[in-house]
Automatic annotation (TrEMBL):
The keyword Aminoacyl-tRNA synthetase does not apply. It comes from Streptomyces brasiliensis. Belongs to the cytochrome P450 family. This is Cytochrome P450. Heme binds at residue 378. Keywords: Heme, Iron, Metal-binding, Monooxygenase, Oxidoreductase. SUPFAM superfamilies: Cytochrome P450 (SSF48264).
Length: 436
């Protein structure tokens, strides 16, 4: 296939761009942005860098654009003609009702209690491997929110699937690679089986319990709008996606707070003032402005979904360039969020930009897409933000998490954007300041 012309990437050829991307993916994404709003990576892949083009691509997913791989990297039919896709989108819409603001209000203080229990365990050991510990916490939070306060073996099985899914640092040939994929598929089947068991149990044994995501999907099954397997599938996808992204973002957040002690102090003062020593609830969010701004700025600088890709299902024209079915278009939230045309001091950690929005210059939509956008936007976007605010406030009210002196975290992009090698020391926090 011969692509239409367009501005080539910074290395000037498809082969050169691929080499540069392989050596330093994030650095390449920042450099290619300087080549224009639409950049030709090679004949099969273009990159879009303006909010207008990003909005066009993401909003037209499931129509002009499709997704050809699922969360496990398996090939899938993402075309608009797929009946499976239509059922999947129906399930997503129903699950989204449980993950919205009303559903989170119903959760009350349950999330903070889970965080407090895990944080107490971290304090007992004194040191944690950040990504592993935070993934365990996030898996429990999303499992309870989707399935209720007794999520069975789901958190453990989510962790097993995550471990099986991680690609090898060095590619293994032949039989070893096949065995790894078999292990991953078995882990996915085991997780689906456990979710299926728990959903079926809720269907037959509910006695006025607080509604969770599973309950909404069960009702849809009873009405004939969704199959039971479809309900299980969408819960599994949400469990897996939300736990990984939330954990990575929290790891970056605690690292950033320690690198900016003045901001950490402001967040601690806010937590002490607004909570007075009790655990936070979703109702406290409007008063935790600094904490929420820290969360949003962390997601801007270090969006877990740092690279998104779509494939053309039908011809389209982007920035005057005609593209053909089968060609791909990529969006990088990491590069978009660091565009100096969109953000003042884009590389700086500056949470105040989210507090006084009325005084900030007006920017176009789709300049902030840490969870993607359009019909395939991450369903857990609001859940993830709220969970991060509650987790941050809970931890800051009691403990201090600081990087261990001997650890040197680095960017890790093999799956989502993580601080690889981050180890956190966990200590009791200094006494709260008493207002006079």
């Amino acid at each position: 296939m011969v692509a239409a012309s367009g501005q080539l990437g910074p290395e000037g050829s498809g082969f050169g761009n691929r080499l540069a991307f392989g050596r330093d993916a994030l650095g390449f994404l920042l450099r290619q942005r300087e080549c224009g709003d639409l950049v030709r990576f090679d004949d099969g892949l273009y990159m879009v860098n303006s909010p207008v083009l990003v909005e066009h691509v993401l909003k037209n997913t499931n129509g002009t654009y499709g997704i050809t791989k699922d969360l496990l990297g398996e090939e899938t039919d993402g075309s608009r003609a797929s009946e499976d896709l239509a059922r999947w989108m129906q399930a997503r819409r129903l699950a989204g009702r449980g993950l919205n603001r009303g559903g989170l209000r119903a959760a009350r203080d349950g999330m903070a209690a889970v965080v407090a229990r895990y944080a107490e365990g971290w304090r007992a050991t004194g040191r944690i491997e950040a990504i592993g510990a935070l993934e365990e916490l996030s898996a429990r939070l999303i499992a309870e929110f989707c399935l209720g306060s007794e999520p069975g073996r789901v958190p453990e099985l989510v962790a097993r699937l995550q471990d099986a899914r991680l690609p090898a640092a060095v590619a293994w040939p032949g039989r070893v690679s096949v065995l790894r994929r078999r292990r991953m598929r078995q882990a996915a089947r085991d997780l689906a089986a456990e979710v299926s068991r728990l959903v079926a149990a809720r269907d037959t044994g509910r006695d006025g319990a607080t509604s969770v995501v599973a309950d909404l999907l069960i009702e849809a099954c009873a009405d004939g709008a969704l199959t039971f397997d479809g309900a299980v599938s969408v819960i599994v996808a949400n469990l897996f996606a939300a736990h990984e992204t939330t954990a990575a973002a929290l790891a970056w957040l605690f690292l950033l707070l320690e690198r900016h002690p003045q901001l950490r102090g402001r967040a601690v003062d806010e937590v002490d003032r607004e909570l007075g020593g009790r655990l936070p609830t979703a109702a406290d969010l409007p008063r935790l402005q600094v904490t929420e701004a820290v969360v949003k700025e962390t997601l801007r600088l270090y969006p877990p979904l740092w690279y998104l890709e779509r494939v053309l299902e039908e011809p389209d024209v982007l920035d005057g360039v005609a593209l053909l079915p089968g060609q791909r278009v990529a969006v990088s939230p990491f590069a978009l969020h660091r565009d100096p045309a969109l953000y003042d001091e884009p590389a700086a950690f500056h949470p105040d930009r989210w507090i006084d929005r009325a005084a900030a210059p007006r920017v176009p939509g789709y300049t902030y897409v840490p969870f993607g956008g359009g019909p395939r936007m991450c369903l857990g976007a609001h859940f993830g933000t709220v969970a991060m605010v509650i987790a941050t406030a809970t931890v800051l009210s009691r403990y201090r998490l600081s990087p261990a002196p001997d650890c040197t975290p680095v960017f890790h992009t093999r799956t989502i954007l993580q601080p690889k090698g981050l180890v956190l020391d966990v200590a009791d926090r200094e006494p709260a300041k008493v207002a006079r």
